[in-house]
Amino acid sequence: MKVTKVVSTLWRVALFIYGRNSYYERQRWGSWERLLGLTRIIDTKAVGQLHWDINTWTDDEVMAWKQSYISTCTAVTVAGAIFASVGLTALQLPNMDSTHWSSRALLSCSMILGVLSVVSAASQQQHIAVLNKAFDIRMWLSRGKTELDKRHYRRPFSHLPLESSVAAMNLLYMPKVLLNLAVLLYTIGFGIYLLYSWIYHAERDGGRDDFATSSSHLWRRLALFT
């Protein structure tokens, strides 16, 4: 039993080493792999890693991944709800109407993205939670059997039965991406609000055309310290 386990482990390590040198992206997407890698339309390395994982993980590892992902969705749901409420509260800050319009726009977008991250994470959690077998999870993460007549995979990927799904991978990352965008937009929007509060003390007669003037005042003040 122990010998079989050791041999299996050594085989997986050997396949992993060969897989790292097999140029997975070029094998799967051909001449498009460089364009996809540069534009980041598809995270080609993550797709290759997922292709490897769904075929080499044990059933226990697959179920452990399920629990880990459900916990991640729960954390994203909590964080997204917090940022949605914080974004709504920020729109009610004193003299917010007198600051630059971009601040209100960014804070509004942050609130919306926070809500979308909550909805996306809850939906993903619901879909993954009902998959009670390792085989079902493998199939959900894959696009089915590898079409060797259309793909020119080399070893070890030519011997792996399932091919990773780009759509499934994008769905997995969607809640976190939405949350990160919400955090980024909130930080920028709140920063603009603080900038106007510092320069103009958020005067009520501010407006759309004050951004250039505020930038000029900011540079003048910085010049005094240099």
Q: What does this entry look like structurally?
A:
Helices cover 73% and strands 3% of the residues. The protein has 226 residues and is mainly alpha-helical. It has helices at 2-20, 24-29, 33-39, 44-56, 59-90, 101-129, 134-141, 166-200, 210-224, and strands at residues 142-145, 162-164. It is built from nine helices and two strands.
How do the helices and strands line up, and which of them pair or pack?
Layout (H helix, E strand, L loop, with lengths): L1 H19 L3 H6 L3 H7 L4 H13 L2 H32 L10 H29 L4 H8 E4 L16 E3 L1 H35 L9 H15 L2
Antiparallel strand pairs: 1-2
Helix pairs in contact: 5-6, 5-7, 5-8, 6-8
Average pLDDT:
76
* Element-level helix/strand string: HHHHHHHEEHH
Task: Give the overall shape, derived from the CA principal axes.
Answer: elongated
- Can you count the helices? 9
* Uncertain regions spanning at least 5 consecutive residues: 17-22, 202-206
What's the main sheet like? 2 strands, antiparallel
Number of domains: 2
CA-to-CA gap between the ends?
73 Å
| DSSP strand content | under 5%
Total beta strands: 2
Estimated helix fraction = over 70%
Query: What is the spatial order of strands in the main beta sheet?
Result: 1-2
